[in-house]
Amino acid sequence: MRGFHRLLGSATGFALAVAIGGTAIGQTVPAPPPEATAHPEIWPQGNWPYKADPAIERRIADLIARMTVEEKVGQVVQADISAVTPDDARRYHLGSILNGGNSAPNGDEFAPAAEWLKLADAFHAASVDRSNGRLGIPIIWGTDAVHGHSNIVGATLFPHNIGLGAMHDPALIKRIAQATAKEIRATGIEWTFAPTITVPQDLRWGRAYEGYSSDPKLVASYVGQFIEGLQGKPSATPILQGPYVLASTKHFLADGGTEGGRDQGDARISETELRDTHGMPYVEAINAGVQTVMTSFSSWNGEKIAGHKGLVTDVLKQRMGFGGFVVSDWNAHGQIQGCTNASCPRALNAGLDMYMAPDSWKPLWESLVLQAKSGEVPMARLDDAVANVLRVKIRAGLLDMGKPSSRPLSGQFELLGSPEHRAIAREAVRKSLVLLKNNGSLLPLRPGANILVAGDGADDVARQSGGWTLTWQGTGIDPKHFPGATSIWKGIDGAVKASGGTARLSPDGSFAGKKPDVAIVVFGETPYAEFQGDISTLELKPELRGPLATMKKLKAQGVPVVALMLTGRPLFVNPELNAADAFVAAWLPGSEGAGVADVLLRNRSGGVAHDSTGTLSFAWPATADAKGKTLFERGYGLTAASRTTLPQLSEDPGVKPQAQAGIYMDKGLPAASWSLVVGDPAGSTTRVTTLPIDAANGRVRVTATDFGVQEGARRFAFDGKGPASVALTGMAAVDTTRETNGDVLLVSTIRVDQAPTAPVTLAMRSGPAQAAISLGRLEQLKPGNWTKVGVPLKCFRAGGVNMSAVDTPLVVATDGAFTFSLARVALGTDADVKLDCGG
Q1: Average pLDDT for residues 55-81, to the nearest whole number?
Q2: Who's near 61: CB < 8 A, 6+ residues apart?
Q3: Which end of the chain has less neighbouring CB within 10 Å, N or C?
Q4: Across the chain, what does the average pLDDT equal?
């Protein structure tokens, strides 16, 4: 909205520079440190099921011989549909596209399935254009269908992997993959970035729920079945002739082994542990013929995996025998030493075959063309990468197929959320539930009971589905975008009525009239994805602990309590375990909430139709210390017949309260290590600690106002007699490079109380560098209404801010009279008004 400015110090001039360079031509890239040096001879060998086919090899050689350098480079570059058009794909000979977590046709994350298929046809038509001597090699589309075809409205949403791991049922995993493949094919897409075969070792990691288990053997037992479900059995028959898609295991390697559970962090472990814990599932993936492998953002002992020749080429390709192609994660090449998003020959030279360059594809394509022509990227290596991509496309049958809408299953949108697929998902839900406590054999509940359903997660399909659901973070989704789905409340309500009982929904646990026989309280985590879910201690965020009071209130009223926890990981919840008579870990069950009711309730005749069979695939912590003691070992889980009584547990979390990363102000107060400062260009600065206060030589009056809670915001009244600003400053700079790369926003919860008489800017600083977004006179914000205003972090990066050293995440400034209130400033993806960078 309006304009974007880059400022240095007090300068107000506009400048914008784009760095294209990476490693200079001829520059020597340092070898991996000794502790990050791979020894391929100690790694296992796989049994790649596709034998060399002379006819395919001749076809590949013929194509490569006729390709220009530009066409070759196009095959190894993948662009995101939010940053590329079909005409771009034609002009640059692009070999692949993807839709990231927040990308969709026409920018509509809730676009109907027909629009996805229409766009697939458009990109295909552009890619096969053979005018002007072009070879016209079909493009391939990849998507994150990680728990069903989860970007598509109406698709079946299966439990996330942590729940599937609790099932211990490889056969069901295969059926889930088969159903997912069919739903993907209905929309014309050919490739999914699944299964995730990470082996998480630290539950603070924001992607822990994407792992089946902390046990590599359990993970390995699932891999072959899931890949076969997606791709079919390896054979000479083209994969896409059947009801299948291409699979991609991820993230190679040890993304679940990073220090402190930091997403995109560093796995500081021995090569033996790297091999035996994190490498084990890849043997099964290779044996199953997985066609693609995605490298990790993360490092091993300081060396980024995407640029690690020893692991990518020497171990994965040569020693283990992987014969598909290797793709990087989202702009992960830019994190390699000596690289930028726009230039990274080191990745290709290390063995990468395709760059996932969502919004950096064009400068990357341009730099690769120059590097290939100069010899910095040897032509033999480029040809090898292109051959690997073509080989997969030929195995898929892509080169001999028509447009996506003409292929098997395309346009059969009735497959999305079909009764058959929903039945599979419902079965997975009930098999994934883990009963942790059942004092007095309360569960399963008797038929005919009067049941109260409480808690803030009871009637929320988005909440029970978690991240990677329609949007990247799985947040901000209206219930109407889940047609055919069943919330936990609706599932329980239907089952209770069928058994002759009554049910009522009361989120706060209040009731009038007859006391309920039992209460089910649904609570737990809210959706997140990737680094947005990283935590420092194994605790629920403070704002999510409210249902504990509901449990205690109901218990005090003599109502037995069943606690049902929605979560992407085991957490310290001893207070909730103590408050409940029965406790069930429901994980992130997805769209089929009725599967929960199947286990919680007896049938009409009083029998146990579906016993609790799930067992923990991760250990459950006794404290909030990630390195602390264990409460329930991996493999623990009760059944209806169990007679185990859980005693009262210590409610000491064993850790000190921690500030939440990415939150700079909440409830009107600056977060720990941040300060609220009011100033003017003359150098007058006032740190706001008491209220009310006049600051900036009297130009700004600061008072308290309400938002959510009493005095939960701060009100700033500018008198208009000269320039002034409000800022959040830190004692130490913070690194926001991950968030910037992930298209995260700076979200400010603002209310305009009096419209400004002069333009307003919103800025961010790193040292002397400042980049500001012009907000004009805030015409888009309705006075008197609270609004979450989001600005992409990459806007500030483009304006010159060093995103690895942000010391002032927010500055609001104006020369005019203006009154506004500010309640919260944080990094996030959910905004009412999203501003662009302008120009």
Answers
A1: 98
A2: 387
A3: C
A4: 93
Q: What is the rounded CA–CA span in Å between residue 5 and residue 772?
A: 5
Strands 248-252 and 292-295: parallel
Contacts of 2 (CB under 8 A, 6+ apart): 759, 773, 774, 775, 776, 838
| Global confidence as pTM | 0.90
Beta strands 817-828; 685-687: pairing state: unpaired
What's the sign of the alpha-carbon dihedral 91, 92, 93, 95?
A: negative
Residue type, 347: A
Please name the helix (run of DSSP H) or strand (run of DSSP E) that holds residue 794, with its range, or none.
helix 793-798
- Residue 673: what residue type? S
3-state SS track over 498-565 = HCCCEEEECCCCCCCCCCCCEEEEEEECCCCCHHHHCCCCCCCCHHHCHHHHHHHHHHHCCCCEEEEE
Instruction: For residue 22, give the nearest of 314, 307, 294, 389 by alpha carbon.
Output: 307
Full 3-state SS string of 607-641: CCCCCCCCCCCCCEECCCCCCCCEEECCCCCECCC
Alpha-carbon span 363 to 335, nearest angstrom? 16
Sheet of 292-295: strands edge to edge? 248-252, 292-295, 325-327
**Model confidence band, residue 419 (pLDDT cutoffs 50, 70, 90):** very high
Two tokens, residue 5: 């400015």
Q: Is 608 exposed, middle or buried (0-12, 13-18, 19+ CB in 10 A)?
A: middle
Q: Give the Cβ contact number of residue 511 at 10 Å.
A: 17
The model's pLDDT over 706-749, given as tens digits with 9 standing for 90+, comes to: 998 888 999 999 999 999 999 999 988 999 999 999 889 999 99
Reduce the secondary structure of 230-269 to three states and give it as a string: HHCCCCCCCHHHCCCCECEEEEECCHHHCHHHCCCCEECC
Three-class DSSP labels, 687-702 = ECCCCCEEECCCCEEE
- Identify the burial level of 9 via C-beta atoms within 10 angstroms of its C-beta, where 0-12 means exposed, 13-18 middle and 19 or more buried: exposed
> How far, in Å, are 172, 248, 318, 433 from residue 226 at the CA level?
9, 11, 24, 20
The torsion angles phi and psi of 666, rounded to 5 degrees, stand at -150, 140
Q: What is the DSSP letter of 107?
A: G
Radius of gyration of the chain (CA): 27
Residues 212/180, Cβ–Cβ less than 8 Å: no
Alpha-carbon distance of 446 to 496, in angstroms, equals: 10
Tell me which residue of 579, 436, 446 sits closest to 518, measured CA to CA. Answer: 446
Q: Residue 514's pLDDT is what? A: 93
Catalytic residues: 329, 530
What per-residue confidence (pLDDT) applies to 4? 33
Q: What is the pLDDT of residue 838?
A: 67
pLDDT in tens, 259-299: 999 999 999 999 999 999 999 999 999 999 999 999 999 99
User: Span 79-93, mean pLDDT?
Assistant: 97
- Work out the number of other CB atoms within 10 angstroms of the CB of residue 337: 15
Which of 530, 524, 544 minimizes the C-alpha distance to 472? 530
Whole-number pLDDT of residue 75:
98
Burial grade of 476 (CB within 10 A; 0-12, 13-18, 19 or more): middle
Q: What is the DSSP string of 112-155?
A: -HHHHHHHHHHHHHHHT--GGG---PPPEEEE--SSSSTTSTT-
Closest CA to 747 of 711, 790, 705: 790
Tens digit of pLDDT for each residue in 620-667?
A: 999 999 999 999 999 999 999 998 999 999 999 999 877 778 999 999
Dump pLDDT digits (tens) for 678-700.
Answer: 998 877 889 998 899 999 888 99
Q: What is the pLDDT of residue 28?
A: 52
Task: Write out the H or E segment, with its range, that includes residue 583.
Answer: strand 582-587
Total Cβ atoms within 10 A of residue 442: 17
522, 525, 529, 534: CA torsion to nearest 10 = -160
Query: Quick count: other Cβ atoms within 10 Å of Cβ 504?
Result: 16
